[in-house]
Design a protein that fits this description.
Strand content: 15-25%
Largest sheet: 8 strands, mixed
Radius of gyration: 21 Å
Shape: globular
Distance between the termini: 29 Å
Strand order of the largest sheet: 6-7-8-3-9-10-12-11
Number of strands: 12
Structural class: alpha/beta
Order of helices and strands: EEEHEEHEHHHHHEHEHEEHHEE
Helix content: 25-40%
Length: 331
């Protein structure tokens, strides 16, 4: 990205709270990151670390109540989309920002044809006639690798396999040529063969269309193969962020190191035990006033239990939120 160029997406100090009968749940705590044009940012962490809630907070996809975005800015091409009207936000969703949801089996409406579901954002956001939208929908299905695309527009979701449904979801997300595509664990429900096909599809589409992508996953192997930068989340906050090679070669946060050690190794697989991270993720019933990973961390210091560390730069585009300062080391 050229010096001085503006990121397509710039998130600053985002805080999201859920109000429940048992009190408030602080799901997203001062999350900041940026996304450059044409870049793929991988977002990783355990279930409950705040990955999906953060991304859904950006474009108002969380029900309110109980969700409430308390603080922060979400700048899309310089415009704070947290301050736009509900109507303007609806135009941004599906128009400038596409979202691929986690489960293709339940994300498509079973009573409408695939064609109708792809055509809806085209007629709504792009002002196309139905004939124009149908032609574009066929092009999109062909783009994502579905054969006999024009004929398959009349099919219903149950007539597609899981992998094909996910391709349809990607086609819907791409319909209006969005500036940003957010993919929320889009390959989790698919078998490894179909997963590989979807990943190859994303690589091809990114090369052809040049859009910026946020890829949410718990699979570090996937991130290693497709991401430019990686953002590691834990306890509703960002604990480390770095270019993908730097993160895998020189992880600095104890949580990142622990995650990398859980990746199964092919060499000596019969002799080696699968590594795990002892303990459980934190219950976020209060704003964090200590490091959320401290109870599970082998390197925790007294300061970690009394003060939540701020992110600090430790290298080119590499920052970490940790009081412990290890020597650079390979995981």
């Amino acid at each position: 990205m050229p010096d001085g160029a503006q990121p397509v997406l710039d998130v600053r100090g985002l805080k999201t709270v859920f109000r429940t009968r048992g009190g408030e749940v602080h799901a997203v705590n001062s999350v900041s990151f940026h996304l450059n044009r044409g870049e793929l940012l991988g977002v990783v962490g355990e279930s409950g670390s705040g990955k999906s809630v953060t991304m859904m907070s950006l474009i108002g996809l969380l029900p309110s109540p109980p969700a409430e975005v308390r603080e922060g800015q979400v700048l899309l091409d310089g415009t704070d989309i947290l301050k736009v009207t509900p109507r303007e936000l609806r135009e941004i969703r599906g128009g400038k920002v596409g979202f691929v949801f986690q489960d293709p089996m339940t994300s498509l409406n079973p009573v409408f044809t695939v064609g109708d579901q792809i055509m809806e954002p085209l007629t709504r956001h792009m002002g196309m006639t139905r004939a124009q939208a149908r032609s574009r929908a066929a092009e999109l299905l062909d783009l994502v690798g579905i054969p006999d695309a024009a004929k398959r527009l009349a099919s219903y979701p149950h007539q597609f396999s899981g992998g094909m449904r996910q391709r349809v979801m990607i086609a819907i997300a791409l319909a209006c040529d969005p500036k940003v595509l957010i993919a929320d664990e889009p390959t989790t429900a698919l078998d490894v063969t179909i997963q590989a096909q979807i990943l190859e599809l994303v690589r091809d589409l990114r090369a052809k269309l040049g859009m910026a992508i946020v890829w949410i996953t718990h699979d570090l192997g996937v991130i290693a193969g497709i991401a430019d930068r990686v953002m590691v989340m834990y306890g509703g906050q960002v604990v480390e962020q770095a270019p993908v090679r730097e993160l895998f070669g020189n992880p600095r946060h104890p949580y990142t190191r622990a995650l990398l050690k859980t990746i199964p190794k092919l060499a000596g697989v019969r002799e080696a035990k699968l590594q795990t991270i002892e303990g459980q993720p934190p219950i976020l019933t209060a704003a964090p006033d200590a490091c959320p990973f401290a109870p599970r961390c082998a390197h925790a210091l007294p300061r970690c239990l009394a003060e939540n560390p701020l992110r600090r730069p430790i290298g080119a585009e590499h920052d970490v939120a940790c009081h412990w300062d290890p020597e650079p080391a390979h995981a």
